[in-house]
Model the fold of this input.
Amino acid sequence: MLGFLKIYSVKILLVFLLTVFNSVVTSQSNIVPLDGEPFILKNWFITKDSLTDGNLKIPPGELWTHLSSNSVSDSGNWLIKTDIIISDSVKKEKILGIFVKNIISSYEIFWDGNKIAQNGVLGSERSNEQSGKFIFNIPLPHNITSVGKHSIIVRISNHHDDSLWKWYYGGIEIGSYESGLSIQYKTYFRSFLIIGLLSVSFLFNIFLYFARNRKSEHLLFSLICFIVLLDSVVFVAPIYFNASTTFIHLQYYLFSCFTLLFSSMLPIFFIYFFSFSRKLILPIVVLNITVMVLSAKLSGILSVFNIMSLTILIISTAIVGWAVKEKRENSIVILLGIAAGWISYLFNIAFMGLATIMVICVSFSIARQFAKSERAVGESKLKSAHLENELLKKNINPHFLLNTLTSIIAWLRKEPESAIKLVEALAAEFRMINQISSLSVITIKQEVEICRTHLEIMNYRRKSNFKLETVGLIDDEPIPPMIFHTLIENGLTHGYENKTEGTFTLSRNESTNGIQYCMLNDGDFNENGNPDSSGVGSNYIKGRLEEVFSGRWDFSSHRIDSGWETVIHIRNK
Done:
């Protein structure tokens, strides 16, 4: 019984080893798919080619070595070969094809020892070598695609080494000719779609940059769109003109520049978009340059773009994640775009995928900002109209007019000339109020003139001597209308009921982050005196300040030993 188990165990082990060996052999074999996407040929062997004449001379087997980046020098003449297996007969309506991608610069293709295609002219040196066409697809006739094993040999002439991109970074695919062409069409169609999308976004953000006070984030995003737009244009350029295989050199340098710019500018855009510290910009740029240089030296050219795509995703995820934590506006939308960017990375379309997704997400965020801005503008207009009405109601009210007219009658009986001056001052004040009532800002010079005209009226009415003194004012500096006029009205009402003489002092001072206006008066106030610090006048002042300096102002009013002080602080940010 024990012997039987041993024999049975050995059989199982042999079956397992044969299965594994068979799977390894199968994985190394180039089995041609008759349907679906073309297959990238593997298991290439390489040897030097003497190119003594036009005839192909296949060297003996011991001269062939497995193809790798270490087995290829910078330039020269080479032969590479591999075997393929066609496991089933090709239907009459089907055609197999060979698709050559990024092989530089000239080559001939042999099928079972017979030349079936040539791209460019092979040469023994740069002077007699002619580059082939960038896009090169070969349909295979039915008479050579029989069932069984076939050999493919590519005779390569490579004397145009203008960049780090070498011919062995290319590839050869074989499969359904129709499917291969369809994939190429879809790839270029996707690029055309991206070009259209990015062109609109680029122009739109340029317009926003000039239309919205030259905000840096709009300029940055337009440049990002332009970079990816150029990347797509360079990608599709070979189909517009008869580009040679060496066009890949220019593409390599341009794609490298575009990748470095994009990987640096996208995080910088997020820093501006979410109002983070700009001290992060320099470390991000240095990090991207360092990663790109090291990846090119240590990992090879083909890994550079994948590594840079991963780098930009990590940096962008960190910045946007921070924005989500800080609850910055539109951070969730952008985070969803970053998540989609990770998905595109898994499908090996990180650069174009992330760029396209970011355009969509950021455009959506800008649209939301516009909608919010439109609502804010509508609310601002309603608020402005309300404040305008409040201004007129506050200054042209029955109580004020009745008292002023009563004073005019009294002066007419005693001193007609004073009555005339009172009427002139009243008309002047009404005229100025009418001129500024619809404005959101006026100059400090206009405000002071209205204040002094009002004090002139009150001096005639109350037979008093009130005056306004100014310190350090800038005549053409903009301020909301009637805010200091309102402070003077409140001071007269609450601080000078029993006084016929008083001084208002309006001063301006520079603060560390803005401007500070201070209004002092020497009126008499009791312990609970509060000249309308929370009433109609104060609400009007706060409403006007918010209308013009949204979120950038402070208002305080309190009693001091010599009277009452009101401070208005307008911050730069």
The radius of gyration is 41 Å. Residues 1-27 have pLDDT under 50 and may be disordered. The CA atoms of residues 299 and 307 lie 9 Å apart.
